[in-house]
Amino acid sequence: MKELKKMNAKCNIRMNKYKKLSSTIPKSSESFEWKNVNWRKIKLYLNIFQNKIYAARKKTKVALNFRTLIRPSKSKTREHFAKMKEVINKTRKTDVLLMELNPKIIGWARYYRTAVSYKTFKWLDTLLFKALLKWQYKKHPTRSRKWLNQIYYHKKREKNWVFGMKSPKNNELVSLKSYTDVPIERFVKVKGEKSPYDGDILYWSLRLNNHPTMSGNVSKLLKKQKGLCNICKLPFFPTDIIERDHIVPLSKNGTHKISNMQLLHGHCHKIKTANDRKLM
Ligand SMILES: [Zn+2]
């Protein structure tokens, strides 16, 4: 606190009265492993010049309070990768390898996607890449790197160097999934006094993705549109009439696929269909 006051006086900065600062600077950050994850206390520092809060260890910044970070535990990550390696060493056929590895990757990444795990995911991706390079050399000891690259690595959307194979039947790419493909989603607390029995279907279908009284497609679309109507961009309320609409109308060869569907308010839907008919 004293340091901060000194710094403030030097730079002529006024601080908000209500900002609470910890007066003691702890000696070390604590960490322990529990329930497959690593829990770690991180010191937060305030950079006076940029007025930003972030985790750092430099003396020039002033310590704020703690924040707890939850990461995949190191021992569990190593254990998982050892299992992956076992599979890689055991199998020889590429299609079998892909079939064995993909569900393991997605399952593991989904388990840890609510934690602070992006760096771990990236690390595992590079480890897998290296292990698969070794596997290729073992399988084809006499082939050149160029030949191997042509066979095993492909372009997928914006990504180069995607491990996979083209199926001999229809020449479609079957590729290896990566850990970083699984988006990291923080757990969102249930709002104040909400209960599953309160009848607010809209809130619960957005949150749970499937509510017994709402059809699967509607709740999927609700989540996709983040609870907003696609025309007026206003939120749906529990009392509103929600209607499903075909973006490309059926009369113009639109399909029933979910990619061609959207949710609209009852009144917005009427305006849209009227406009569609005018255009016809
Ligand atoms: Zn609307």
What is the element layout, followed by pairings?
Blueprint: H1 2-11, E1 31-34, E2 37-47, E3 52-54, E4 62-72, H2 74-90, H3 94-111, H4 118-139, H5 145-152, E5 153-156, E6 159-166, E7 173-175, H6 201-208, H7 216-224, E8 242-246, E9 261-265, H8 266-279
Helix pairs in contact: 2-3, 2-4, 6-7
The chain binds zinc ion.
Residues 229, 231-232, 234, 264-265, 268 line the site of zinc ion.
Quick summary:
By secondary structure, the chain is of the alpha+beta class. The protein contains eight helices and nine strands.
Provide structural commentary.
There is one protein chain. This protein is α+β, with helices and mostly antiparallel strands and 280 residues long. It has 3 domains: 71 residues, no CATH class; 107 residues, no CATH class; 79 residues, DNA Binding (I), subunit A. It is 38% helix and 19% strand. It is built from 8 helices and 9 strands. Strands 1, 2, 3 and 4 form a 4-stranded antiparallel beta sheet that branches. A hairpin with a 6-residue loop joins strand 6 and strand 7. Helix 2 packs antiparallel against helix 3, helix 2 packs parallel to helix 4 and helix 6 crosses helix 7. The chain is extended and about 70 Å long. The chain starts with a helix and ends with a helix. The relative contact order is 0.07. About 3% of the residues have low confidence. The structure holds zinc ion (ZN). The site of zinc ion has 7 residues, from strand 9.
